[in-house]
Design a protein that fits this description.
Layout lengths: L1 H23 L13 H28 L5 H9 L1 H18 L32 H19 L9 H24 L13 H19 L15 H20 L9 H26 L4 H15 L8 H25 L7 H19 L9 H9 L1 H32 L8 H6 L1 H6 L15
Helix pairs in contact: 2-3, 2-5, 2-8, 4-5, 4-6, 5-7, 6-7, 6-14, 7-12, 7-14, 8-9, 8-10, 9-10, 9-11, 10-11, 10-12, 11-12, 12-14, 13-14
Length: about 450
């Protein structure tokens, strides 16, 4: 018995250096224990996977809202970004967003510095993670951001136009905004923890512009049926909520302190869900599953720019306030008869705007002490901080609106039309754009309902 125990202890002792050797093989050759944290790297890699999962989650969320004859096309517009955006980001997108742009550094980086994800530092400046891990994590944001835009355009946009528009948009709109906020550019003094301006305002405003250019669906609003599958909407919401822990929590970029954005993310989503349900209950006498799902997403959008800068209590308030404002925005859209199909601007544009401004109201001085905005708060006061947030919002609106308009008009002038023709729209975009359908009748014949 004693020999057996000694043998087991010996094996365990031998295993320790073996495991250390295996782990070391995954680190860059010039990495050392002093400049890399295995825990931080694990957080970033896990968060990267969580954020990637949000894109299929968004596909389910959007797909459930549409008519059955358009569900595959709707989901494909999100899913294709996992290919297109990844390639664009890996070639020059990341370099544009996160390298030094020299004389143009206020607005954009150098496209060649990290082209094809080469020449990345063994550990990213100011962090304890490899440069490649940082680039991978940021790339997941570049995937879901253009995918968000598609919600305003479903059931009439040309898939060909979508595949031409999005890579250009990533390079001309998303990458410059990411650089200005997170890459050392013009908006580096403003608070945006995980993408209120960079992700949600840019996608929401771009969606609004494109929806206006493309026009309403031909049979909207009277001919449009209710969501074809609310269960898909709820599944998508669950996946988005789950993935958002990586979206916001991973943006801490370190295990130390990550418990705060994880928590504020969760409580804000919960508050958004309950707020929307209460509003519906008071107004209509009942709460809908679709409303609760939308409220949860609104809460998640609202907390994104604030997640690591506010207390959990403030996170609840941000979630509830943002949800209420998004609800009012949806009602206004209906009254104005504007066909933002799945309320992309109403939730992401308005929600991102509300979140960015509320971040200025609720940010705690001790939580932003190491951020340039902390000095603004200390020396100039709360109103100066809020004013800075408002200016960042206006700049994001301008870049997204002008950039989107120019890209769309140029593409159209080159013969790439915005939308499908009327017969294709009536038959359904699953058939016209992809030659397949999501559902078949029991008899085996295609259903185009």
């Amino acid at each position: 018995m004693l020999r057996t125990r000694i043998g087991k202890i010996g094996i365990a002792l031998l295993a320790v250096p073996a495991l250390q050797l295996i782990f070391a093989s995954f680190l860059p050759a010039n990495a050392t224990e002093s400049n890399l944290s295995a825990a931080d790297n694990t957080l970033i890699l896990t968060s990267s996977a969580l954020v990637l999962l949000m894109t299929p989650g968004l596909a389910f969320f959007y797909g459930g809202f549409t008519q059955a004859k358009n569900v595959l096309n709707t989901m494909a517009m999100s899913f294709v970004m996992m290919g297109i955006a990844t390639l664009v980001w890996s070639t020059i997108g990341f370099s544009l967003a996160f390298s030094d742009g020299g004389a143009s550094n206020a607005f954009i980086g150098n496209p060649s510095t990290y082209a094809f994800l080469e020449n990345l530092p063994s550990n990213w400046e100011g962090l304890q993670i490899p440069g490649l891990s940082f680039a991978l994590f940021q790339g997941m944001f570049a995937i879901i951001t253009p995918a968000l835009i598609s919600g305003a355009l479903v059931e009439r946009i040309s898939f060909r136009f979508w595949c031409f528009f999005t890579p250009i948009w990533i390079l001309l709109v998303y990458a410059p905004l990411a650089h200005m906020v997170w890459g050392g550019g013009l908006l580096g003094k403003d608070l945006d923890f995980a993408g209120g301006t960079v992700v949600h305002i840019s996608s929401g405003v771009s969606a609004l512009v494109l929806a206006g250019l493309i026009g309403s669906r031909s049979n909207w609003p009277k001919g449009i049926k209710p969501p074809h599958d609310i269960t898909q909407i709820l599944i998508g919401t669950g996946l988005l909520w789950f993935g958002w822990f990586g979206f916001n929590g991973g943006s801490q970029l370190s295990v130390s302190g990550a418990e705060l954005p994880f928590t504020t993310t969760h409580v804000s989503a919960a508050a958004g869900l309950v707020a929307w349900a209460l509003i519906e209950s008071i107004k209509d006498g009942k709460s809908t599953a679709v409303g609760m799902a939308t409220g949860a997403v609104a809460g998640l959008v609202g907390i994104t720019p604030a997640a690591g800068f506010v207390s959990p209590g403030s996170g609840m308030l941000i979630g509830a306030i943002t949800s209420a404002l998004c609800y009012l925005s949806v009602q206004l859209k209906i009254k104005l008869s504007f066909d933002d199909s799945l309320d992309t601007f109403a939730v992401h544009g308005v929600g991102g705007t509300a979140g960015a401004l509320l971040t200025g109201f609720f940010a705690k001085s001790e939580l932003i002490a190491s951020h340039p905005a902390g000095l603004v708060l200390e020396e100039q006061g709360r109103m100066a901080l809020i004013s800075g947030q408002f200016q960042a919002v206006l700049i994001a609106y301008g870049i997204a609106a002008i950039g989107t308009f120019v890209i769309a008009i140029v593409l159209k002038s080159l013969g790439c039309n915005f939308r499908v023709n009327n017969s294709e729209e009536q038959s359904g975009l699953d058939i016209s754009q992809h030659g397949e359908e999501a559902y078949m009748e029991k008899t085996g014949s295609p259903s185009a309902t």
